[in-house]
Design goal:
This protein has four helices and four strands; from the N terminus they run αβββαααβ. It has helices spanning 8-15, 75-83, 89-96, 102-105, and strands at 34-38, 44-48, 63-68, 111-115. The chain has a two-stranded antiparallel ribbon with strand order 1-2. Strands 3-4 form a two-stranded antiparallel sheet. The longest helix is centred in the middle third of the chain and has 9 residues, at 75-83. The N and C termini lie far apart (54 Å).
Length: 126
């Protein structure tokens, strides 16, 4: 058991006084599972389970547009333009198989797929 004096925040979470962390629906971590590890000293550590990125392209993502990268493009601004939210840049990364966001805008002329979130169908003509 966690010592309430040593780990007061964890104790408050365990008692339900502080709610567990939840992520908004537009977060890449929405619906992610949490796991718990108990250290040899008895400390309980809660962490996010590994998130596996789906393979790019169909059937995981429906492409709704394509963007040709210009020299000064930024991924957050591309996400704001096409998806209406700069914080959704991670969706563009996932849909294009990019592990590092800056890889997508490094080279002018690179074509980036703009997609709907996984599980959300695109237009029938997409």
């Amino acid at each position: 058991m966690t010592n309430p004096v040593t780990y007061p925040v964890q104790s408050l979470i365990n008692l339900g006084v502080i709610p567990p962390v939840t992520f908004p629906t537009d977060s890449r971590y929405y619906n992610s599972a949490t796991l718990t590890y108990t250290a040899p000293n008895g400390q309980t550590i809660t962490y996010l389970a590994r998130r596996f990125v789906p393979q790019p392209g169909a059937p995981n993502y429906a492409t709704v547009a394509q963007h040709t990268v210009k020299q000064s493009d930024r991924l957050d601004l591309i996400a704001a333009t096409y998806l209406g939210d700069p914080l959704m840049y991670w969706l563009i990364c996932d849909a294009n198989g990019a592990m590092r966001p800056d890889q997508l805008t490094q080279t002018a002329g690179n074509v980036i797929n703009i997609t709907m979130p996984q599980g959300v169908p695109g237009a029938s003509n997409a």
